[in-house]
Design a protein that fits this description.
globular, 7 helices, 234 residues, mainly alpha
C-alpha cells in the first residue's frame, strides 16, 4: 500500500504466493461515493467485535483485498470471520506472544514487538482510535467513506503518519494486514478462504496427502483442485 493508495489485489496475491506454498501446511467495492457499510449484508454474527468494530474491520478488508473481478475479495472469502474467530482463540489473547516487560518505548528496536497489547487489545483500542481520527478528519465513520478515502487512510496508518490516541498506527495496521493475509490463505476450517477460493487462485493443493510429483514442474498448472483439512474438495 505504500506504493499506491489503491492496493491492487492481483499484486497482493502474486507477492504472497511463494510464501503461502511453503507455510500453509504449518499454520493451522471499487466504486467511489459513499457506499453502504461493507459488512451490512454479511450474515456472520461476530463473537468478539462490537457493531462499530465489525463495520470498521469489514470496510478495511474490503479495501485490502477488494473484489476486482479476479476472484473473490476478502469479504466474500470470509477474512473478517477468520479474524473474529481468532480473537476468541488463544492467539487473540496473546497466548503465543511474549508479554513480559520491558515495554516500548523503553526497549531497543532489535527486540521486535514490545507493547503491552494482545491482538485483542490492538483491535479494540486501535479500531476505536482509528475511527476517531478518521471522523475528526472527514466528518463520517471510516466504514461510510468512499473507497478512495479508505485507501488513503489505510496508507497513512501503514506509514504511521496518522497520530492515534491508542496503539501506534503502523503497529495496528501491521496487525490488521497480517491477519487479513492469514485469513485469506488459511484452511477454511478457520473461517476464511471460503470454498478454498484463494488456494484455487494460486494453484495451491491444500492438505492433499501427496503432490510431490508436481513440485519440479515449474510453470505447469496443478491439474487437481485443493483439499481442505476436513476433507472438502475444491
Amino acid at each position: 500500500m505504500s506504493k499506491a493508495p489503491n492496493l491492487r489485489r492481483r499484486s497482493f496475491l502474486l507477492g504472497l504466493a511463494p510464501a503461502v506454498a511453503g507455510t500453509l501446511g504449518t499454520i493451522a467495492s471499487s466504486a467511489s461515493g459513499e457506499p453502504e457499510d461493507p459488512g451490512a449484508k454479511r450474515s456472520h454474527l461476530p463473537v468478539f467485535f462490537n457493531s462499530a468494530e465489525w463495520s470498521f474491520l469489514n470496510a478495511s478488508v474490503d479495501r485490502l483485498i477488494p473484489d476486482d473481478g479476479n476472484g473473490p475479495g476478502g469479504l466474500d472469502a470470509g477474512v473478517a470471520v477468520f479474524i473474529d474467530r481468532q480473537m476468541e482463540a488463544p492467539y487473540g489473547h496473546g497466548a503465543y506472544w511474549y508479554m513480559q516487560g520491558p515495554f516500548y518505548p523503553d526497549t531497543p528496536a532489535t527486540l521486535g514487538y514490545q507493547l503491552r497489547y494482545t491482538p485483542r487489545d490492538l483491535y479494540r483500542l486501535g479500531i476505536a482510535a482509528a475511527d476517531r481520527a478518521f471522523l475528526a478528519a472527514k466528518g463520517l465513520p471510516f466504514s461510510k467513506a468512499s473507497a478512495e478515502d479508505r485507501d488513503a487512510f489505510l496508507s497513512q496508518l501503514e506509514a504511521g503518519t496518522v497520530q492515534l490516541d491508542g496503539p501506534p498506527a503502523a503497529i495496528f495496521f501491521g496487525q490488521l494486514l497480517t491477519n487479513v493475509r492469514e485469513g485469506y490463505f488459511a484452511d477454511p476450517m478457520y473461517g476464511g478462504n471460503r470454498d478454498m477460493a484463494a488456494w484455487k487462485a494460486i494453484g495451491f493443493p491444500g492438505a492433499r496427502a501427496d503432490f510431490t510429483d508436481w513440485l519440479d514442474q515449474q510453470g505447469r498448472a496443478y491439474p487437481f483442485g485443493p483439499v481442505a483439512i476436513e476433507g472438502d474438495r475444491g
